[in-house]
Design brief:
Layout (H helix, E strand, L loop, with lengths): L2 E4 L4 E4 L7 E6 L10 H19 L3 E6 L6 H10 L3 H18 L15 H13 L3 E3 L5 E3 L15 H7 L14 E6 L14 E3 L1 H13 L3 E6 L4 H16 L4 E6 L3 E3 L2 E2 L10 H5 L4 H9 L7 E3 L1 H18 L13 H10 L4 H21 L4 H14 L7 H6 L9 H16 L3 H13 L2 E6 L2 E6 L1
Parallel strand pairs: 3-4, 3-9, 9-10, 11-13
Antiparallel strand pairs: 1-2, 5-6, 6-7, 7-8, 11-12, 14-15
The structure holds zinc ion.
Length: 460
Amino acid sequence: MLKIHNTLTGKKEEFVPLVPGKVGMYVCGNTVYDFCHIGHARAMISFDIISRHLRFSGFELNYVRNITDVDDKIIKRAAENNETPESLTLRMIEAQTQDELKLGNKLPDREPKATEFMQEIIDMIAVLVEKGFAYQGSTGDVYFRTEKHADYGKLNNRKLDEMLAGARIDVESAKENPADFVLWKSAKEGEVHWQSPWGIGRPGWHIECSAMSTSCLGPHFDIHGGGPDLKFPHHENEIAQSECANGTDYVNYWMHCGAVRVNNEKMSKSLGNFFTVRDVLEKYNPEVIRFLMVSSQYRSPIDYSEQSLLEAKVGLERMYTSLQGQDFATEYVSSGYTERYQDAMNDDFNTPVAISVLFDLVRELNKAKASGADNAPSLAKELSVLAELLGLLGQDPEYFLKNSVVNDGISEEEIEAFIAERIQARKDKNFARSDEIRDSLAEQGITLLDTREGTSWTRR
Ligand code: ZN
């Protein structure tokens, strides 16, 4: 039985889909004005793992993740770059897809773009205006009337009065109430815009997701997910808009993944501790990043640091080493690990426990290899099948072990040549040259290990 922690109730609940055997899942995707950073990667990988487990559990899943391709940040960045918003967003969508495939994700079933759902967005706003849940202010912008939604605040467990007490009173605003939020923004001169009953403009961010999720999955569906900072106000506002426009419950299970912290601080551009997926892929094999993300349960915060990446690298190397030289059995038979893996994942997608099951399997496989037991191929097969459910161990073991960090310039042949030269230098008692070679390799991230058998090396 699958249990999911539901943000709406704050409890772990048995998962019961609306239609037996089928699941509709909508996840808020990125605003595409820049390259994905590791916080985005965390959310994308979390929901990829969740979708894989839902499918492995036999559910027929429809996984929809939107793309916000119209937004103030996009308009601003495109103007800075001297390009159109469309050319910027198309480049960034392509970059996101490349990053995501490198990180081992399967793409969602559908990735709707806000600009392709303008009619649905306008129609939904029109319904809200007609029912009295929205109004056009004196500046031309259309707002949602939060007071009219009796349940407003239910996701975040806040009362409207409490929210108002803390709200900044904006004297310029045409809102009836400071907690009201924008559904349609009138366009400024020269800005990208669409025609609407309220004049030319563009949609607010929240209404996009209500319109796209309703179009793709219907007014009431099973799972809605997103990053930790989307709970408020984005998801609260989505609930209000959708329930008021459609006159039905919106989502049964709300899921939010945890944040990524860098060296125990919040990751932010202003602190200068901000990493794009591309930055990290320049140094590490993509599976190392994925392993780091999967090592924590999706709801926990992740501490991202050089140290945590190195620990992930060492963990993966242990798994790949156990697969080295193994002929996999073609037949997949569980020796009990699959059931333990499923139990872990059925407990709100508890990936750290699932990974510990894989390490138990690695230990048994290593013992079987050492003793020449004939169940080694079968254990190796089970390990690779279970790891695949997490998007791991997809590379050739020999390849991974030599490329767990990105080769930063010096090739294996060059390293071997330097080692040979160093051996000769030591025979010649030219210790200055020998030390020089060691230091030079160390600067390039290569550590030499002198043993009785000779000299071996690793990349740091
Ligand atoms: Zn959204």
